[in-house]
Amino acid sequence: MNWNVMAERVLAGHELTEEEGLSILDSSDDDILNLLHSAYQIRRHHFGNKVKLNMIINTKSGFCPENCGYCAQSIDSEAPIQKYRMMDKDTIVKGAEQAHQLHSGTYCIVASGRGPTNRELNEVTSAVEEIKQKYDLKICACLGLLKPEQARQLKESGVDRYNHNINTSESHHDAITTTHTYHDRVDTVNHAKQAGISPCSGVIVGMKETKLDVLHMAKALKELDADSIPVNFLHAIDGTALAGTDELNPLYCLKVLALFRFINPSKEIRISGGREVNLRSLQPLGLYAANSIFVGDYLTTAGQEGTKDHQMLRDAGFEIEYPAPQHTLK
Known about the structure:
Helix content is 40%, strand content 14%. It is of the alpha/beta class. Helix 8 links the parallel strand 6 (203-205) and strand 7. Helix 3 crosses helix 9, helix 4 crosses helix 5 and helix 6 (148-157) crosses helix 7. The longest helix has 17 residues, at 118-134.
């Protein structure tokens, strides 16, 4: 397969066929640099050499009634994690200060649970209003399944983006969770879009899905028109249903990132949870396809130190994309 020709066709508007998509995942390891070079042509056309930084705050941990097999916060999980109820407004605002210091462009406010209660939603929206007065940060909320009126409340408070991952393909969904449906997740993304919030939706790779499932995930997110696509690589946690699962290697992860870039050429592709343990020493190569990463810790697992992330980007010749000032800070 001539990856350069395929990249040129994608830039001209071509959408990959199923056969072409699978050829990326099935490609020889010996061809990985050619594949990444071609993915980079698409990435550079839309984003230059810049990398967006994002930071998560886990505002509520555990106490979740959902049975997602990958999650340490699941009702079925026996993982020894810290559990706490929703943080107060001041603590959420303080986290924004750390995001600002790490040069993050987006501050992601995440909470476990099926969906937010009225009290939890009010705590978040109150915090967002104060953060917007203090920092030039984009705010992404990730609070579970949303009702249309809740999406509107988030929009009115200043939330820029809402994250709700499809996580896996529609056909593989029931093997991962049964307490909600694939369409529940899609509906939440659409509620956010209808409220005028930028949709963020991504996947977790390495949950015993097939390569065809991975292809279908990438195409589903194209159909959803998600502006930001977090690509997580399973970091299997003891005590969860997927404990001990170890299907990934760095070269395959790079092929997955290339696939997502070819199928979603103009979208923010973010290397997310599990990058440190799955990409390992090849993390910088992932940014030839992706254009965004998380800095700091994830929900229940530790990330790489923010200063090391900054050094990694500089060493590879990438440029951090700093948020553009939106107003005079108070």
